Amino acid sequence: MEKIASFTVDHEALEPGLYVSRRDRCGDVCVTTFDLRMTAPNREPAMDTAAVHALEHLGATFLRNHPEWGERVVYFGPMGCRTGFYLAVFGEWDASDLVPVVTDLFSWAAGYEGDVPGANAHDCGNYLDINLPMARWEAQRYLDRALVGIDEAHLAYPKTSALNGL
């Protein structure tokens, strides 16, 4: 089998940022998938599963209720490696187009108080594995080190990646 596109990204050079992971087309429909990379892969610890789970609930709720982006969201969920999230949206977009909504999402998550949406036995298959305080910490860390003042170098995969220039 051929190596899938996401495995061609140079994870040794990848830093926290916001990247276009791929663009898929079916007829006239385009779906752009973004890599919301929150930690430096293989150089920093992966995020705690319970924090990732809380961020998944918060992110999906925020994005699907967003007045501008809600109807465009196809998927928001964690990477298996726990170094970030994927966000898939209808349309052909650049990473810079998503900076405002992703910044709003993580600002909201960093300050979120109350019950995590869907964190109960009826709505979630593993509702006890949620850590809101750690999720808030991870959200603030991503804002501080990647989103606020993001530059072009953190909006495009490293030059050594096969996906650069997507």
Automatic annotation (TrEMBL):
A molecular function GO annotation: S-ribosylhomocysteine lyase activity
Domain of life: Bacteria
SUPFAM superfamilies in UniProt: LuxS/MPP-like metallohydrolase (SSF63411)
Cofactor: Fe cation
Keywords assigned: Autoinducer synthesis, Iron, Lyase, Metal-binding, Quorum sensing
Record-linked Gene3D superfamilies: S-ribosylhomocysteinase (LuxS)
Reactions that this protein is recorded to catalyse: S-(5-deoxy-D-ribos-5-yl)-L-homocysteine = (S)-4,5-dihydroxypentane-2,3-dione + L-homocysteine
One family name in Pfam for this protein: LuxS
Metal-binding among keywords: yes
Family: Belongs to the LuxS family.
NCBIfam families named in the record: PRK02260.1-4 (NF002604)
Complexes and interactors: Homodimer.
PANTHER family membership: S-RIBOSYLHOMOCYSTEINE LYASE
Protein's name in the database: S-ribosylhomocysteine lyase
Organism of derivation: Kribbibacterium absianum
